Structure formats: structure tokens, C-alpha cells
Amino acid sequence: MKAMEKWIGVNEWLPEDDQRVLVVCRTKKGVQSVNLAYYWNGTWHGQGSMAGVTHWMPLPPVPEAKT
User: Fold this and answer.
1) CA-CA distance, 25 to 32, in Å (whole number)?
2) Is 44 exposed, middle or buried (0-12, 13-18, 19+ CB in 10 A)?
3) Which residues contact 23 (CB under 8 A, 6 or more apart)?
4) Is the dihedral of CA 61, 14, 32, 50 positive or negative?
5) What tens-digit pLDDT sequence spans the chain (67 residues)?
């Protein structure tokens, strides 16, 4: 099994527009969550609050279908 990619800080670089990624969000109270999101035109979009996105990671590849 291939190891997961490492988390990338949003201050290091951002994903390409419309690329689906995992993001880490942190609330003002310090609670962290992981969400599926994409970055488009300078704004994060996804399920739940996209405020406080600190890191992102590419999605792993989809498993191959066995026939």
C-alpha cells in the first residue's frame, strides 16, 4: 500500500482551481475537522464550514475495479 501524501499548509501553496482535496479546518475555539473541498477563484468550497482552512492534501487514487 502506498503511503498517503503529506498535508500541505495553505501558506506553502494552494491546489489548482476545481481540484477536489481533503482540507483541515480549525474553528475559533481550536476544534479541527477534515472535509472534502475544492478551491476556486480564491475561495474554499465544500461541506461544512470552510472558515479556517489550514492544510490540504490531494485525494488518494480511486481503487481499480476488478472484473
Assistant:
1) 5
2) buried
3) 34, 35, 36, 37, 44, 46, 50, 53, 55, 56, 57
4) negative
5) 455 679 999 999 999 999 999 999 988 888 899 999 999 999 999 987 788 999 999 998 888 888 7
DSSP per-residue string spanning 11-38: TT--PPTT-EEEEEEE-TT--EEEEEEE
Cell of 42: 480564491
Residue 43: what pLDDT?
A: 92
From residue 6, give the alpha-carbon distance in Å to each of 2, 3, 64. Answer: 12, 9, 23
